[in-house]
Amino acid sequence: MALLNQLFYLFVLIAVASYAGWQGGWPERIGATIMVVGSILTVIAAMSFYPGWQTPQAGIFIVDLLVLAAFGNLALNSDRYWPLWVTSFHLIAVTIHLATLADRSVAALPYAWAAEFWAYPMLVGIAAGTWNHRRRARASVRRPNVVRY
Asked: What is the pTM of this model?
C-alpha cells in the first residue's frame, strides 16, 4: 500500500510540475521546482536518517524547514496569491513535526500520514496558480490595446 501511495504522489508531482513548467509563469515554475527538489531531498533524508517514524524525523524536518523558507521567499517576492496558500499548507506540515517533538507519544502512522498529506494541497495550489496564470494570459491576448483620447 505504501508503494502505491508513493507512486501516486510521484505521478501527481510529475503532472503538476510538467504543467507548471509548460504553462506557468516564473512563480509557478519556481514553486514546482521547490516541490520537486523538496521531494527528492525528503527521500534522501528518509533513507539517511530512517528511524521508522517512531521518533520525529530530523532529516525530513530540516528539509521541510528549507522548503518552508523557499516558499515563504516566493510568497514575498511574487505577485500571486497561491504561494501564500502553499506556504500556509506547508507551515501546517512543519507544525506537525514540532508537535511530535513536543509530545513523543504521537503514534507513528498518524504522524507519517499527517506529514505527507499536506503535499497534495500544495500541489493543488501550484496547479491552480498555473491555471489562473494561463487564464490571465489568454484574457490579455484577446483584449486589444485601445488607445483612448
From this structure: 0.86
